[in-house]
Design goal:
By secondary structure, the protein is mainly alpha-helical. Helix content is about 80%, strand content about 0%. It is built from eight helices and no strands. The chain is elongated, with a radius of gyration of 51 Å. The N and C termini lie far apart (about 140 Å). The N terminus is likely disordered.
């Protein structure tokens, strides 16, 4: 049997259904709004953490940049300083070379030096006194510095050092001091040992007595 419902009942059900739908929609919207409100502090926290980290790292980053800039300036300046040092070193070597040439000329024009070089002979005490003064004048108190620094050197040692400093050869020194060339070599060895007794580091680079005295 077919039952026929009044058309008003369908209208009433339609109203109820529509009302329920609206209520459901409002409820869903409220839930969504609630969830968004609950999520806002968390999202805000997630956003603010990187910002805080950036703020805390900013000073460190700035300091690092300053260090890099400082080191870069030093790096750029280093070749200039090195070049300047090289220029000064070259200039000093040139001055030293000029000084040596001038010193050689002063020694060469000295009357006694000319005589002893061209016609070697046995030196008299007064000759040694003249050569000693010449050496001290040209080489800034050479004998005084040598005596004060190496107090164990004998008069014979000082005489030998003067003759070496003035550029006399072993054969010339042998004639000037009236001994054999072998004895001159032996005397040089003894003088070198006496110097090393007081300063063991002398001749550490293997210098000869002649070369060491030329630098002294």
């Amino acid at each position: 049997m077919n039952i026929q419902w009044p058309s008003g009942i369908f209208y009433f059900k339609s109203i109820l259904s529509d009302s329920n739908n609206k209520e459901y929609i409002r409820s869903f919207q409220d839930q969504q709004t609630g969830q968004q409100k609950d999520q806002e502090p968390e999202q805000t926290s997630q956003i603010s953490q990187p910002e805080q980290q950036n703020k805390s790292l900013a000073p460190a980053n700035q300091e690092l940049q300053e260090q890099i800039e400082t080191n870069w300036k030093k790096l750029k300046e280093t070749p200039l300083r090195t070049q300047h040092i090289q220029e000064l070193t070259t200039e000093m070597l040139l001055l030293k070379e000029r000084e040596q040439k001038l010193t050689g000329q002063l020694i060469a024009i000295h009357p006694l030096m000319n005589e002893l070089r061209n016609s070697p002979r046995f030196m008299r005490p007064e000759d040694l006194a003249v050569l000693r003064k010449l050496t001290d004048d040209i080489y800034q108190d050479f004998t005084s510095r040598l005596n004060s620094r190496f107090t164990n050197l004998t008069d014979v040692d000082i005489q030998l050092c003067i003759l070496i400093k003035l550029g006399f050869s072993i054969s010339q020194i042998a004639i000037l001091t009236a001994i054999s060339p072998t004895s001159v070599s032996q005397q040089k060895s003894r003088t070198k040992k006496r110097i090393q007794q007081q300063e063991p580091d002398c001749f550490a680079e293997g210098e000869t007595l002649d070369l060491w005295l030329r630098k002294f």
